[in-house]
Amino acid sequence: VDIAGVLEEVGRRPEDLFAWVRDETSPLPYRGALRGPSGVLLERAGNSLDRSLLLAALLEAAGCEVRLANVTLPRESASGLLSRLVEGIAAAGGGGEEPSEIRQAGDRVRRIAEGLRKALGDGAGTGEEAEASLAEALADHWWVQRRREGKWVDLDPAGVTAPAPSRTVPVSLGGGRIPLPAADCHEVDLRIVIEAFREGKLATDRVFEMTLRPAEVLGRSINFVHS
């Protein structure tokens, strides 16, 4: 469940690492970096950005120069991705003599996908609107580009033949930080506020504020001590 473990198991050839992420992790329809490399390794699932972050981290650890690429897919392409995702979930439930670990992983992915559908469906109203919301999330598509012989080569675990990226982001994940703006990441704002009476009136002061990104701190302990 960590980068070093995957490298030890798979090796350092970029082609093998790409194939491992493509085949051993599953796509999910949500926007923004939420799980990060650690979360995708733990759950074996993530959206295009989180899976790309995992692939970028693996390739970087193997000594490759990489960057993230992003584009908004046309509606038809996003709907096609959603159909493939649903078909994949249905196929995973077809039974067979799979090892228990694979069955459990498939069950988790199905539960997560169903939960996402219900959550979005409740807010969207109709089934068509819920499907459109999922497709819109998939339209925010990310993949990895690896520099090889002076050229950037596309590596997309989702297998999408995307147009030229609308933007690229240099990436270095060695320090655990994700080099993306807040608009591309799920964030949690933690605030500590104190209350006190002053001149007969209740006043509040914000004494601490910190923004955390789940994709960066997943699996880590965070302790707060005050006196």
Brief characterization of the structure:
This protein is α+β, with helices and mostly antiparallel strands and 227 residues long. The protein is 44% helix and 23% strand.
- Helix-strand makeup class: alpha+beta
Could you list the spans in which at least 5 consecutive residues all have pLDDT below 50? none
- Give the overall shape: globular
Strands of the widest sheet, in order across it, are 5-4-3-6
The largest pleated sheet is described as: 4 strands, antiparallel
State mean pLDDT (0 to 100 scale). Answer: 86
What does this protein structure show overall?
The chain is of the alpha+beta class and 227 residues long. Helix content is 44%, strand content 23%. It contains 8 helices and 8 strands; from the N terminus they run ααβαβαβαααβββββα. A 4-stranded antiparallel β-sheet has the order 5-4-3-6. The chain has a two-stranded parallel sheet with strand order 1-2. A two-stranded antiparallel sheet has the order 7-8. Strand 4 (140-148) and strand 5 form a beta hairpin. The radius of gyration is 20 Å and the shape is globular.
